[in-house]
Amino acid sequence: METILVPTRVLLLTQWFDPEPSMKGLAFAKHLQSLGYEVEVVTGFPNYPSGTLYSGYSSRLFQQDMMEGIKVNRVWLFPSHDQSALKRVYNYLSFAFSALIRCLFFTKRPDIIYAYHPPLTVGFTAMMVGLFRRVKVVYDIQDMWPDTLKATGMIQNNMVLNSVGRVAKLIYAHMDHIVVLSPGFKSLLLQRGVEKDKITVIPNWCNESDLIKNSYPTPENFPKDTTFKVVFAGNMGKAQDLSVVLNAAKTLEKEVSFIFIGGGLEVTSLQEIVRKETLKNVYFIPPVPMSDVSLYLKQADALLVHLKDNPLFQITIPSKTQAYMALGKPILMGVKGDAAKIITNANCGEVFEPG
C-alpha cells in the first residue's frame, strides 16, 4: 500500500511581515512551502517602521489574507514605533495577546511553531502556545534582549532590564531549538546557560534573485548629480547612530553625496540637522517596497552599514550586509566584530571605527 506523506504544518509567528521589511517574511514562508511544508502565518497589521498603518489596511480585530499562496492571519495591535517606551511596550504586548488568542483557538494545530524575535513578547506567545497545544517551537533570535534595549537607550532602568533578562531565560528554557544569526550570539547564550545542542547558527541571507533581476532605469527620486554616492538603506534608529555620517557629509560636501533610504525614529532629527547645517549633499528617500530597493542600491558607488560602538553590536550582523554583498557593491562597514570580519575576509569593502 502506497504511503501518503502529509506535509508538516508550520506556524510562522512574527510581529512583522510583508509588506513590512522582515528578514523572515514572505520569501521565507514561500521557500518553506516550496520544500513541502504547509505554512500559515500569524502577524500584525503592518505599521513598521513608521508606527502608522500602511495604506490599504485599517485597524480591526482580525483579517485573513492570501499572499502568493500563503495564508496570513493579521491580528489587532496598537500601532506605534516612536520615542515613547510605554507606547512601544503597548505595541508589543497588544500583538502578543492578540496572537496568543488567535494561535490557541483559531488556527490549525501546527506541527512546528517558528517564532521570529524581536520582540521578546513573541517568544512568550510561542512558549504558551507550544505548552498548551503541545507543539515544538523553534525560536529565531535576531536581537539579543535585554542587551538591545540598553544599547539603543530604549530602557536604562536596571531593575526593568534584569526583569526582561529573567523572562528571556524562562523563554529560552522552554524553546525546543534556538536559531541565532552569528557565532557571537551563540556564545552569549551559552554564557547564559542555554544548552549547546539547542543552538544553531544560521547566518541571514538575502533574496538574491529579486535583487539581481531588476535592471530598470534609475528611479525618478534618486539624485542625478555626478558626485560619488554613498547609500544607506534600512531603519534609521538610535542604534544606527547616523548623525556621525552627517558630520562626514559636511566635510565631504563637494565630493560625496549621502542618500538615506527608509524610515525610523531618527529620520526627523537627522533631517533637522541637515536643515540647520544647510547640507546640500544629503538626501532622504521614503521607504520603498523590498521588491524595488535594488533599483536604488544599484545606483550607489558604495553602500553603508553603521551601528553604535557597543559590545552587543560586535556580535551582530545587520541583515543589510548580505543584500549589499549580493549586489557586488563596495561596502563601508562601520560595525566592529563579526560583521567587520565578513567584509575583511571577503575583501569587499572598507571597515572603519563606529562613530
Description:
- There is one protein chain.
- This protein is of the alpha/beta class.
- The chain has twelve helices and 14 strands.
- It has helices at 26-34, 85-105, 120-133, 147-151, 158-174, 183-191, 208-213, 243-251, 267-276, 293-297, 320-326, 338-346, and strands at 9-13, 38-44, 62-67, 70-75, 112-117, 136-141, 177-180, 199-201, 228-233, 256-261, 282-285, 302-306, 331-334, 349-351.
- Strands 3-4-2-1-5-6-7-8 form an eight-stranded mixed beta sheet, with helices on both faces. The protein has a six-stranded parallel beta sheet with strand order 11-10-9-12-13-14, sandwiched between helices.
- Helix 11 (320-326) links the parallel strand 12 and strand 13 (331-334).
- The longest helix has 21 residues, at 85-105.
- The radius of gyration is 21 Å and the shape is globular.
- The model has no long low-confidence stretch (mean pLDDT 90).
- Overall, the morphology is globular
Residue stretches low in confidence (pLDDT < 50, at least 5 long) are none
Structural class: alpha/beta
The number of E-state strands comes to 14
Strand order of the largest sheet: 3-4-2-1-5-6-7-8
| Amino-to-carboxy terminus distance | 67 Å
* Tally of individual helices: 12
Q: Which percent range describes the beta-strand content?
A: 15-25%
- What's the multimeric state? single chain
Rg result: 21 Å
Average pLDDT number: 90
Structure, briefly:
This protein is of the alpha/beta class and 355 residues long. Helices cover 34% and strands 20% of the residues.
Please give the structural blueprint.
Elements: E1 9-13, H1 26-34, E2 38-44, E3 62-67, E4 70-75, H2 85-105, E5 112-117, H3 120-133, E6 136-141, H4 147-151, H5 158-174, E7 177-180, H6 183-191, E8 199-201, H7 208-213, E9 228-233, H8 243-251, E10 256-261, H9 267-276, E11 282-285, H10 293-297, E12 302-306, H11 320-326, E13 331-334, H12 338-346, E14 349-351
Parallel strand pairs: 1-2, 1-5, 2-4, 5-6, 6-7, 7-8, 9-10, 9-12, 10-11, 12-13, 13-14
Antiparallel strand pairs: 3-4
